[in-house]
Amino acid sequence: MFDKNFIASRYTRNGGWLHSLREANDETRKVVGYALEDKVLERTPLKDAEVSMLFTYMHRRFGLPSLGGDDYKDLSAGWLITTPMDDLALIVSPSFAGMGFSFMPVVSMPAKGRDGLQEITGERLQAMASAYERTLLDFLRPVIQRDMDFNVMGEISDENPVPDWHGGEDDDDDYDRLPRYHETCGLPMPDGVFGNKDWQQLLALLGRMGGGDIAKGMEVFVLGAEERAFENARKARPEILPIIAAGFFLAGIDNAREKISMLGVDAEDKRVGEFVRGAYGNSGDAKPSDWLMSVTEVDIRESAELVSAFGVGTHYMTKGVENIAREQRYTIEWARFVEISGREFDESLIPDVQYITGAAVEEWRRYVAVSGDTRLSEWAEELAGDTIGRQTLARILSILHFEKVKAARDAGKGLQ
Predict the structure, then answer these.
(1) Is residue 260's pLDDT more than 60?
(2) Which residues are CB-neighbours of 386 under 8 A, at least 6 positions away?
């Protein structure tokens, strides 16, 4: 009976050995066939699948292959996929030798020997053959890339439609049950990690740390690394602890507040939020605190180094080196401008433009230079001597330009 509710997924091995169903005994060879003449495969559209499409589909739906193979004979490592029967799995290893060599139904047995394989006959064998066929047909379920749906046979079309396997009358409900793409799609595979001389040793060590479970071993490894990272972070200078705490928020990790608390910092500390906004360049009109004004590039880079020990990104922390420096420079130079000008200066020197650009700043500098206001001119020339200074000058001039435009607009309203 066709199982409409079955959806194939990655098969998890719980010990035991995998034996080819085709080679189990004489009867399985007659019912299932061989790689060159797979009788079950021949009953499905997949007999005509292309190896490139099979590889693309498997990667998109099931992620990276996890079953080792022969680097000469096999196109890549393979996938171990579930079937409707717990003791039957399907190895998928795309091969240019043909589709029969790309699929291998395997029986999970408790021992390495052939004990029990002779008993796969009659109804049990027919059930396994049906389960194998059902899994093959499951590869007709579409996955998606951008707005294109495709399955193992290619793009979904009138000639290659979505299988009509739903139990009700609402196609949309069934469509929502279909896999869209694997969670690992888009994740990079760093050069030098897979297949290098230390790869197998690393897997063995992780497996040992996890009691045979590599995923558990990775969790143990990460927890150990975090413990060491916390030990070092807690020894940091007190004045940079809020920066380290902000680094967890800037890294975008889900448990940022938990880590901040473990660091001994209050996540609601105003300095934490202030640094986050400053690192993003979103401080707005708020005047920086004395603490933020005292933060140095050394403070930020030292904090970023400590945060990186947790294995999280520090991109926005390092961006904060420039953004925080820009905010500090603006605060200092605005105060200098007010002290020099007293907010009393010739507004006609401000260029009549829609918005302030680099060209408008240069034009204003030239106007100020010949205006006779020596102190203001010297201040502007000093600011223009470096990149952050020029950006600060543009920001201040933008404020003055806005005030000039607003005053003119208000004056026009008063005449109406």
Answers:
(1) yes
(2) none
Query: 61 near 143, Cβ under 8 Å?
Result: yes
Shortest CA distance to 104 belongs to which of 112, 119, 94? 94
Q: Is the pLDDT of residue 217 over 60?
A: yes
Collapsing DSSP to helix, strand or coil, 143 comes out as strand
What are the pLDDT digits (tens) for 140-161? Answer: 999 988 888 899 999 988 888 8
Q: Which two tokens stand for residue 411?
A: 């004056």
With beta carbons less than 8 A apart as the criterion, state whether 229 and 308 touch. no
Q: Do 91 and 171 reside in the same domain of the chain?
A: yes
Q: Are residues 107 and 202 in the same domain?
A: no
The DSSP 8-state label assigned to residue 16 in this structure reads S
Q: Read off the DSSP letter of residue 374.
A: H
Examine residue 383 and state whether it is found in any structural domain, yes or no: yes
**How many residues are given for the chain?**
416
What is the DSSP secondary structure assignment for residue 356, as one 8-state letter?
Answer: -
Q: 10: which strand partners?
A: 81
Which token pair is 94? 């795309």
Q: Per-residue pLDDT tens for 281-296?
A: 988 778 899 999 999 9
> Alpha carbon 396 to chain centroid distance?
38
Supply the range of the domain harboring residue 368: 345-415
List, edge to edge, every strand of the sheet that includes 148-151. 143-145, 148-151, 154-155
Are 121 and 21 within 8 A, CB to CB? no
How many angstroms separate the CA atoms of 368 and 403, rounded?
A: 18
Is residue 202 in a domain?
yes
How many distinct structural domains can be found in the chain? 3
Q: Is 242 exposed, middle or buried (0-12, 13-18, 19+ CB in 10 A)?
A: buried
Q: Is the dihedral of CA 14, 15, 21, 25 positive or negative?
A: negative
Whether 79 maps to a domain, the answer reads: yes
Q: Is the pLDDT of residue 27 over 90?
A: yes
**Statement to judge: residues 218 and 81 lie in one domain:** no
| 102 pLDDT higher than 70 | yes
